[in-house]
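Predicting holo structure, guanosine-5',3'-tetraphosphate bound.
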Amino acid sequence: MNIQWYPGHMAKTRRMISERLRQVDAVCEILDARIPVSSRNPDVEELTAGKPRLIVLNRADQADVSATARWSDSFRARGYAVLTTDAKSGRGAGKFAVAVRGLLAEKLKAYADKGQSGRVIRVMVLGIPNVGKSTFINRIAGRNVAKAEDRPGVTRAGQWIPIDKQLELLDTPGILWPKFDDEATGLRLAFTGAVKDEILDAETLGCHFMAYMAELAPESLISAYKLPSLPLREASEDAIAYGYRLLQAAGRKRGFLISGGEIDTERMARILLDEYRAGKLGRLTLELPE
Ligand code: G4P
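Done. Tokens:
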């Protein structure tokens, strides 16, 4: 798999995060609830150690409800505060300020004891592209403040975003890329659309996704593509070969034909990924806590 990786940008982002951490009281890390491991930059855990931390499981509307509950428990057990949101509709976002104040309860009490109860709390918001960070920030700020654009070379201004009289946010300093430790991580990021489709051609990605879905949620495939049943995977078949057969079966049902009666598997692959990302295959979480 040919995944672009930007070590120079990442080093710069790490430096910028470390520098600005001193100015904040807490860190809010936004993850994609469908892939809470793959959408996390593993450096962040260490970089932000020592700060009170809130994990936001965003895109909860696209994830499996019970899987999200398991992830919440798992992060809480590791000392994080957790909030579940759907930034697109705004669901859960209203609880952000309360969650932050809960996380910083001791500090706030100490301020109050010193007669400084009006002090502004500052929170750094971290997230890799496409987790919904801009949408989330705009939601809780109640207006359009965050630039919905993340690509190398575009630096977000390190401005404080006021949420209420006593709460300010700082958007990710620099661009936080995911880390592709293994092929499975890269594939999950590609399935959800977090990394652009150029890393793998759509058809190959569609083959991988079909094979993945056949294991994770065969009934979703059967009902979405009106298949009588799923063909079984041969012992000799790899994921791509098996996924290709599934693409053919689904494409045939959809009537995606090209000249000569061949099935347009490339079109089927694009439709499959679009439909997954649009939630048409159901609410599917691709990673579970151990
Ligand atoms: P980013 O800053 O983390 O890169 O992500 P951004 O907010 O730009 O969101 C990327 C896309 O994901 C947007 O869709 C946004 O609406 C959608 N999104 C964000 N949060 C959620 C969520 O919790 N649930 C769902 N279902 N979608 C979410 P888009 O198609 O690029 O734009 P739009 O047409 O929806 O505005």
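DSSP finds eleven helices and eight strands in the chain.
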